[in-house]
Amino acid sequence: NVFYHEADADTATPLSPPWMENPYVKVDTVAAEHLSRPSPGSGGPPQGRINRKTLRLGPLSRAGFYLA
Q1: Using one digit for the tens of pLDDT, what is the confidence trace for 9-62?
Q2: Is 56 in contact with 30 (CB distance < 8 Å)?
Q3: Is the pTM for the entire model greater than 0.85?
Q4: Which residues contact 36 (CB under 8 A, 6 or more apart)?
């Protein structure tokens, strides 16, 4: 699941904003369609297909946001 929480400043602490679903807004659920494996031997980038999904947030009314 992907959530966002709007904020006017970068003031996150372990207690604020609360690290739970509320006050975050759920954007979408993202599931892997393809599994990738590391390159053999060197630990390089994964080989195979890449999972991508475009998500839209908003409307946003504050200076920034946190993703969870």
Answers
A1: 888 888 877 777 678 889 999 887 766 666 666 666 656 677 778 998 888 999
A2: no
A3: no
A4: 46, 47, 48, 49, 50, 51
